[in-house]
Design brief:
By secondary structure, the protein is α+β, with helices and mostly antiparallel strands. It has nine helices and four strands, in the order ααβααβαααβαβα. Bound molecules: flavin mononucleotide (FMN). The site of flavin mononucleotide has 11 residues, from helix 4 and strand 3. Its cofactor is FMN.
């Protein structure tokens, strides 16, 4: 079954990266539903390295503030929720549970390049699933890589094996703060069929 035009509009054609937010909170129940969907998205060897912190409180936002680039500061402080998409650099310790039919842990343990590549690739994918799942649940999103990762890691992941990958503001967007949609490539510029 192909999704309706209305669903495709909501997920892609009319969905935008938001810079302003309505004063409308996001229920914790919606965030739980969101993560349940995200965790069903595919990752290599089901490695599921993504770890997610939903920064909702003023106290949490103040911990985030010093790490934000100037252009991302005001909108992030105003967003009802900022998701930190992190990656567990010891994701492979969970593979006996997540990929029980093979010794997948041994593919990674001691192989720093495979660990770094797999953590980054798959947590980034999971962040992408989060953007689309949020849109499917009626939320708006604003992804950001303009922040000081070392500061976020110190403030939120000290003493853990998790590192930050990127941030996603979540809430109900204020359409008056949108920039005009930037152009996209045509098929031939970005893709080919061989
Ligand atoms: C991983 C990622 C990082 C981004 N970083 C920033 C950022 O730091 N600041 C910002 O204002 N926008 C950021 N953006 C938003 C993009 O510029 C935006 O998604 C793109 O221009 C397309 O806009 P549209 O979704 O409204 O069509 C980021 C988007 C992604 C996916």
């Amino acid at each position: 079954m192909i999704l309706s035009d209305q669903a495709l509009d909501q997920l892609f054609r009319e969905a935008r990266t938001h810079n302003g937010w309505q004063q409308k909170p996001v229920d914790d129940a919606v965030l739980k539903q969101l993560i349940e969907l995200v965790l069903l998205g595919p990752t290599s060897a089901n490695s599921s390295p993504g770890r997610f912190v939903f920064v909702k409180t003023q106290e949490g936002k103040e911990k985030l503030r010093p790490a934000l680039s100037p252009g991302n500061l005001e909108k992030t402080m105003a967003a009802p929720v900022t998701a930190i998409v992190g990656m567990d650099m010891e994701f492979y310790e969970h593979l006996p549970k997540l990929f029980p039919h093979a010794d997948a842990r041994s593919w990674f343990a001691g192989n720093d390049k495979a660990i770094a590549d797999t953590a980054f690739r798959n947590s980034t994918l999971q962040g992408g699933y989060l953007i689309l799942a949020a849109r499917a649940l009626g939320l708006d999103t604003g992804a950001m890589s303009g922040f000081d990762a070392a500061k976020v890691d110190e403030a939120f992941f000290a003493g853990t094996t998790v590192k930050s990958n990127f941030l996603i503001n979540l809430g109900y967007g204020d359409p008056s703060k949108l920039f005009p949609r930037s152009p996209r490539f045509a098929f031939d510029e970005a893709a080919r069929i061989v």
